[in-house]
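ESCALATION

Customer reports they have been waiting on this structure for their group meeting. Please prioritize. Original submission:
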Amino acid sequence: MLIMANPYISFVLQLAPRILTQIDRDTDSPTFGCCDRNFWHYKVRDFSSAILQQSGLGLALLYKNDFPGNIYYAKNEIKETAAAALNYWRKIQHNDGSFDEYWPNEHSIPAAVFSLFSAVEICKLLEIDNAKTNNAILKAAKFLIRNPEKQALNQEIASMCAVYNAALFLSSELLKQEAEKKFSKLLALQDEEGWFAEYNGADIGYLTVSLNFMAEYYRLSRDERAKDCIIRIFDFIKYFIHPDGSLGGDYASRNTEYFLPAGFEIAANLCNFPEAGMIAERLMVYAASNYSVDDRYLAHYVFHSFVRALAENNQRKEIKDKKYRKNASVLLPYQKEFFKYFKNAGIAIVSNKKHYIICALSKGGVTSVFDKKTKRKILNDCGYRAFIGSKVYVTNWINNGYKAEISSPENYTNNILKVESYFYRAKFHTPTTVQHFLLRIASFFVGRKIIPLMKKIFILPSKKSRIRLTREINISNNGINIKDEINSQTKIDTLRASEGLSLRYCPSSRFFQNSTLIRNNYPYEEHDIKDAKIEKRIG
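Update from on-call: job pushed to the front of the queue and completed.
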């Protein structure tokens, strides 16, 4: 008997034509192999985003892995298109080894990180070994060595993995040493709770990216320290797999709700951790009808992670496998009753008979509640937005200035979570022609030196206001009662319940999820007030 006859097959086969559609497949075209359809086909952009060249790896994996229904297996056209994606990647590289992602002359770290890993994997899968491509790989690796990422650690983990992969492919002891230096620094940065920081907090979707590339690193290196790191990630991430099969959300630092599966499957096979494969397959049950990302992220690392997961899953087909059978019945946290507080992440979890509750105290008490009987999300409380004149302030902004109290540590039947926080200034950013013109001028003269300014504008913490929020969440087996008190020194023109959709910029957020439809199940709006008391009850 097979394990679900491989849960990834239909998913991958549905995505493959969408990926191929993004690629210029005309062998006579000067942009043959370009994976940015906005550039080569629609012509609405004057440069190609290099991060999309990862599509070539997904095709190379399809070409090399035979499975039921894979019409792309061993097809020369697929091999040529994957190789063309690699060649075009080389053509758009800057002299310093970097690439562009969002604007010309950006010299983006993510574009170099993720495309380098894919480029090396394509070379290995298709047995490509030529001087020009090898030189491009070396230049990209050296760029990443010179430019570590310090705030989005998923990128630095992928960077470490990409440089190590390049070192093995080029037989470079120097690159290998630099990759191992990155690895040692990353081990010191892993929080004791198991997560890696994403702009000052724990984010679940991006943690699966970290897992993906830490597992790839283990696949390449067999370094036991990487295995231990992976297990610590699992010990954290398993608490954020919800009863409906979804993962992540507004309670995390970057609001992501998607996952990469390859890390789970590699860990199941190579780390002797079959529970990881079981978790991946549970996530796939939800993903089969609810996995939602845009075409840019499909062309990014999503597609090739799913194809890699498919190949890894095929290696453990027999349900008779003793290790899998033993762990197939292991209960995930949401199936148990407990209280858990990740103090460093600022996230409390209560699981009782009726509900699975995740509360981000570090984000003003953002709370997700799932009904265990129906396995559905019944509350997605993202706090409030306050409008004063043309300015908007929000409570769902991760910060270190909150004060939290927990009445009964470890009590999951009767507990009170209390948080005192503040509204933070946020902005709606609408691009203009002038802004884009100035950005391009600045990037032309100073290159990637402009990136810290862009992060400060779009991502990094905003200014704290003098509007205070005190939230009290009373949890029992009978239900949940939330009491909010808002006090402002300035009159608030409009105060309303937030629908989520955080104003903190994150490219891989705001993908539609079915649970989005319940965002407004507790609407609230008041005008011309300084103080407010709001109460809601979830039975």
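Sent to customer with the following note: The first strand starts at residue 338 and ends at 342.
Escalation resolved.
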